[in-house]
Design brief:
single chain, mainly alpha
């Protein structure tokens, strides 16, 4: 799992490049969210399905980061 932690930073950079981070969200917070997402994805990952871990994990990590940037209304960031 530790060899894939760079994917979390990649997900944070991808989200931060698309949107302007709200004042209530720090890059460190996003990185924590992405790392938790990677752990959750790792539990569900099945190599026999044919996808690499990175291919399987990145969409979920980016989604978790975007959700963390959502305003108080609960809507996801664009």
């Amino acid at each position: 799992m530790t060899e894939h932690l760079a994917l979390a930073q990649y997900a944070v950079n991808a989200v931060a490049a698309r949107i302007s981070l709200p004042a209530h969200v720090s890059r460190e917070d996003l990185l924590s969210c992405a790392q938790v997402a990677l752990v959750e994805v790792a539990r569900r990952y099945d190599a026999a399905a044919g996808a690499t871990f990175a291919t399987y994990a990145l969409p979920g990590s980016r989604a978790r980061c975007s959700t963390s940037c959502a305003p108080v209304t609960g809507r996801a960031a664009p």
